[in-house]
């Protein structure tokens, strides 16, 4: 029985790289996660250094904040500064423990504030207060991992009357641990994600903007490497399909690396 419980706790410590997972911290636990983001679309390259802070209110309820610092290069010019700070909470409302495996589901609520300087670059801030609601399900065992998540982002209207189109994201993720290890040994899980995005057209003073919104799909290989209470999570999104409205530049790639430490 003790071995089965230990296997469940080891399996429960993972979430996808780009998708949303149901994992929450233990009561009184805290997590500090520096993050490196990079994305390229046409001649625009955006690099972002973020810091995520999470606290376990209970074993099934976590809350936290994300603080981004962005550097945007377009052509020969570069702009940097503070991005939009967000606060969030995640509630794991269902959990099914099995010998060496666990299923669970959680809800996410996130509020993205208007803290970035959007007058210098749209990538530094949106000029609006936006909200995200998400639903995640996950199955985690000593060898196999599966996640499904759905998120909806509702965007506000800025001072110029521009409302960016609301966005929906769907993530399908699978993972495998090729070599089973114990908690005191380094551990590696290989991930493969399919990430889909659908955005509605933006509206300017109530009129639809033609060159906005549409659909994009990405395939995203990644890894989750852990050693005790430290982890490195990394992946790259490669576009495989896009159907964008009007004249828009599709994404070339997106990359993310996260360093997680919890106690």
Give an account of the 3D structure.
By secondary structure, the chain is mainly β. Helix content is 4%, strand content 62%. The protein is built from one helix and 16 strands. It has one helix spanning 2-11, and strands at residues 30-41, 44-58, 61-74, 77-82, 86-98, 101-112, 130-141, 144-154, 162-163, 167-176, 187-199, 203-204, 207-208, 214-227, 230-244, 253-262. The strands form two sheets. Strands 1-2-3-5-6-7-8-10-11-14-15-16 form a twelve-stranded antiparallel beta barrel. Strands 9-12-13 form a three-stranded antiparallel sheet, with no helix packed on it. A hairpin with a 2-residue loop joins strand 2 and strand 3 (61-74). It is globular, with a radius of gyration of 19 Å.
Model regions low in confidence, pLDDT < 50 over at least 5 residues:
1-12
CATH class division: Mainly Beta
Helix content: under 10%
Largest sheet: 12 strands, antiparallel, barrel
In spatial order, strands of the major sheet run 1-2-3-5-6-7-8-10-11-14-15-16
Work out the strand percent.
Answer: over 45%
Helix-strand topology string: HEEEEEEEEEEEEEEEE
The CATH superfamily appears as: monomeric porin ompg
Radius of gyration: 19 Å
Q: What is the CA–CA distance across the termini?
A: 25 Å
Number of strands: 16
Count of separate structural domains: 1
* CATH domain topology: Porin
Structural class of the helix and strand makeup? mainly beta
| Secondary structure tally, helices | 1
In round numbers, the mean pLDDT is 91
Note the overall shape.
globular
Return the CATH architecture: Beta Barrel
């Amino acid at each position: 029985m003790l071995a089965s419980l230990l296997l469940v706790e080891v399996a429960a410590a993972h979430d996808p790289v780009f998708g949303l997972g149901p994992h929450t911290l233990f009561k009184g636990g805290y997590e500090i996660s520096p993050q490196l983001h990079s994305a390229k679309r046409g001649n625009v390259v955006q690099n972002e250094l973020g810091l995520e802070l999470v606290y376990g209110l209970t074993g099934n309820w976590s809350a936290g904040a994300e603080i981004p610092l962005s550097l945007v290069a377009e052509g020969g010019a570069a702009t940097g500064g503070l991005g939009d700070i967000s606060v969030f909470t995640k509630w794991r409302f269902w959990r099914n423990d099995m010998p060496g495996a666990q299923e669970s589901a959680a809800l996410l609520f996130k509020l993205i504030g208007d803290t970035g300087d959007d007058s210098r670059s749209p990538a530094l801030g949106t000029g609006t207060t936006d909200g995200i609601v998400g639903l995640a399900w996950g199955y985690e065992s000593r060898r196999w991992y599966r996640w499904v998540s759905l998120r909806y982002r509702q965007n506000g209207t800025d001072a110029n009357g521009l409302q960016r189109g609301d966005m929906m994201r769907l993530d399908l993720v699978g993972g495998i641990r090729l070599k089973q290890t114990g908690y005191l040994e380094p551990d590696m899980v290989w991930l493969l994600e399919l990430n889909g995005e659908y955005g509605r057209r933006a509206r300017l003073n109530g009129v639809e903007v033609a060159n906005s919104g549409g659909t994009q799909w990405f395939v995203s290989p990644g890894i989750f490497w852990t050693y005790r209470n430290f982890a490195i999570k990394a992946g790259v999104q490669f576009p495989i399909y896009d159907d964008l409205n009007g004249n828009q530049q599709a994404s070339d790639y997106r990359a993310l690396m996260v360093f997680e430490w919890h106690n």
